[in-house]
Design goal:
Elements lengths: L1 E7 L2 E9 L5 H18 L9 E5 L10 E5 L12 H16 L13 H5 L8 H11 L8 E3 L8 E4 L2 E5 L6 E3 L2 H14 L2 H15 L5 H8 L6 H9 L10 H13 L3
Helix pairs in contact: 2-6, 4-9, 5-6, 5-7, 5-9, 7-9
Length: 262
């Protein structure tokens, strides 16, 4: 990700160049084309999302790396909110705005990784994962809303404690709206606490006027693996302390609470 400044006769414009480096070109090309289609669809929705400027799906116009150029949304990531309740509330209020958009985009693929991996070797509460597997073997509740598919604090921007931008729309499309809720809850538990994840669910349900489906909550929580301990500190980038030792326990506690509602 590169922030570029275009200076034309004294008029400056800030843009963001996203390059897929070290990725198989065919796969990267699909990602560029998908995100471009989503940004194009979002252009007149009023959501605080980047606007598409140009693409180079095969990298021919750039340096060989498939690339996407977009406007820069003002704001910065905030992982140390002064008012966590207001921070969570604004995140929860943004999701129904995303889900109500009547955008005709490709389906977001659903998969069930836990059924393939089985009980994690690191688990202190293996019975939770066995119970989760039993739930996931059942039929998934329906859902055909527009979803972000990676909605969480790393993809939100803030200015003066106000939510100013939603970014990273590569995986967006049609799907069950509770996938966004569950994915955000997982990320909140991983980096912060089970309490914050539960408060987010409650705030979302109040904003949306509906209760989230427990099946999808469990589906998203079981996306977690021990690999998160490696990439979360990279995403955090020193902005806040990361409690690696308690990460597994927080996820299992949130899973236990979710299973009571499934």
């Amino acid at each position: 990700m590169h922030r570029l400044t275009i200076d034309t006769r004294g008029s400056r414009q800030h843009v963001v160049l996203r390059r897929w480096v070290g990725t198989e070109v065919g796969d990267a090309t699909k990602k560029v084309e998908r995100e471009a289609a989503v940004l194009d669809a979002l252009a007149d929705t009023g959501l605080p999302a980047p606007q598409l400027v140009a693409t180079s799906p095969d990298g021919a116009e750039t340096d060989g790396c498939p690339s996407l150029l977009m406007t820069r949304v003002p704001g910065r990531m905030d992982l140390t909110p002064a008012d966590p309740a207001a921070w969570i509330g604004q995140m929860a209020a943004a999701l129904p705005r995303v889900h109500c958009l009547p955008l005709d985009l490709p389906l977001v693929t659903s998969w069930r990784p836990l059924l393939e991996r089985g009980v994690p070797a690191w688990s202190r509460r293996p019975e939770l994962w066995r119970e989760a597997m039993a739930v996931l073997r059942g039929e998934a509740p329906g859902g055909d809303s527009f979803i972000h598919s990676d909605f969480q604090h790393f993809n939100l921007l803030w200015r003066r404690d106000r939510l100013s931008g939603i970014v990273d729309w590569t995986w967006s499309g049609r799907g069950a709206q509770d996938r966004d809720v569950g994915h955000c809850r997982l990320n909140l538990a991983v980096l912060f606490s089970v309490d914050l994840a539960e408060r987010f669910r409650e705030a979302y349900e109040a904003e949306a006027g509906r209760r989230m489906e427990g099946w999808w909550d469990i589906h998203e929580l079981t996306m977690y693996s021990d690999g998160w301990q490696q990439f979360i500190p990279i995403q955090v980038g020193g902005r806040t302390p990361v409690d690696l030792d308690g990460m597994h326990d927080r996820v299992e506690e949130l899973l236990a609470q979710s299973l009571t509602r499934a």
